[in-house]
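Supplementary Text 2. Reproducibility record for the structural model of the 86-residue chain.

All settings were left at their defaults, and a single model was retained for analysis rather than an ensemble. We include the record here because the model underlies the residue-level annotations in Supplementary Table 4.
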Amino acid sequence: MENERKDNIYDELVAHLTDMSTPIDFDALEAGGMIAKEGSWYRVSDAASLPKHVAKKIKEMMGDNKGIKVKFYSHKRYSKMVEKYL
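Retained model, structure tokens:
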């Protein structure tokens, strides 16, 4: 039972690191109308429709009269973790 729980935790950690290390294709998201660059922020048309690996990288979120703006974590730090530990 304990080993099974450890395996599940390890699998969840690997899945999370994999999502976090996947680069965001900002050009594709902008072309699809899902995000729009506004200074150092990105305007999000529908946060629920963002791909899972993109939604997990939201670092900051701010609402204003136009909707929601977000900032993202970089994938680079997580890519290094994946290279080192997995």
